[in-house]
Amino acid sequence: MAGEKTEKATPKRREEARKKGQIARSADLSGSVIMLAGLFTLGITGPSIAHRIGESMTSALQAGAGREPVTIGTIGDIFLQTGRTAGLCLAPVLGACALAAIAVSVAQVGLKPKPDALKPDPKRLNPVTGAKNIFGKNALVELAKNLLKIGVVAVVVLSALVPHISDWAALVGMSPIELGTAMSANIKSLAFRAGAAYFVIGLIDFGWQRFRHEKSLKMDKQEVKEELKGQDLPAEVKGAIRRRQRDAARARMMAAVPDADVVVTNPTHFSVALKYDGHSPAPEVVAKGQDLLALRIREIAAANGVPIVPDPPLARSLHGSVEVGQQIPEELFQAVAQILAYVYRVAGRRAATA
Length: 354
Description:
6% strand, mainly alpha, name from scop, 4 strands, 4-stranded mixed β-sheet, 2 domains
């Protein structure tokens, strides 16, 4: 079927899409990797974090118990110390999450940042397009995906939690420290199970995004042909192609001179060959040239009996304003008509005396 997009995208098409920010990327895969990195780092640094928080709380309680006078200065010190402790506790986790985000982004889209994708695009503010994104087919697909993700993660967590409900009931009556120690291990196990399930979902979603992206980039056969014609070529090859095109156009132009009705000259610098078939609205320029090319046109015209009429102003006007294959403009009708009338009269006299 004509226009059916069955061909894979060319490298140029992919690069153009990339410049616009159209890439295959899964937010779920990125989120799951960041989540697992945070959990893993938290599992390693957890004891140190708990120790630091404990010391910070102890210091704050001691200050509040009257061991140190509570003033504006001491409150500021308490907040400063608490903030420093929180920063030291969160730094490893935040750093791991940041590195994981960079790594998973590079793994999905590569190390080729495209600043053009960050430029504001007024088309993205189109309310019609926005409504289609919210209520269209893609929105329903995303809704189904999100519900499926929630369901899968919930099933994984419940499958690990339900068999141990009786163990949770046995924790009643424990001291806060014992309860925290027992619960931390269970919560850590549940979190890693949920993260692993989310990671699998992210991999599946990345595959789906790749499939959609490749489908959106597909081209029809005509698009591939047009792009191959305009693909980047070395300057030498482009120059050779242009020379061949000029030579071919010049050969076609010279082949049309013997069929012309008249050649208007400067008389040495410009030559313009005109032809009028009696049916077209105006005469047509079939060949034109300057200097050596003009001389060649006159030689071919003379060899084939085509009349040559010197008219410098008209020759310059035709050469400068009309391209080969175009009809003459209206403002030159009268001047050209006079020349054609003269040529036809001369031809008629020759035919009468022959």
